[in-house]
What does this fold into?
Amino acid sequence: MQKILTTKLLVTLIGQGYRYCLSRTTSILGEDADICITLLPVKRAPSLKNLPERFDTYFKISEEPRQMAMGIDETIVLVDLSEINIFVEVSL
It folds into this structure.
């Protein structure tokens, strides 16, 4: 399940103990965006040398993702919740 990144979702993730987000950036063809950033929350700091194959980099959850939640022109930012166990309200 993927959700659009919001500040409310970030607060929920931080409250659940997630401190970092793996990040993957892809080009898309859309009316509202040219770029899609997909974040996967993780609790421990990943090694930049040993990132999972499908990810480009990672961020501290309280830094770049907080800025992304405010919106980036021509960019959609999604959070991949399919691989984590988190209580997420439907309204997020």
